[in-house]
Amino acid sequence: MLLKTQALTKKIANAFSKKIAEQVFDLTKIMDNKKICSREQYS
Description:
By secondary structure, the chain is of the alpha+beta class.
């Protein structure tokens, strides 16, 4: 799953910028093979 996340981060960086890609990566967490938003983590 990490490789998919890294690939997506690279695509975002190419389309927008590296800073935005890093922010998206930081806001996304992976738990139990399921991608969830960090906001859901605290619900």
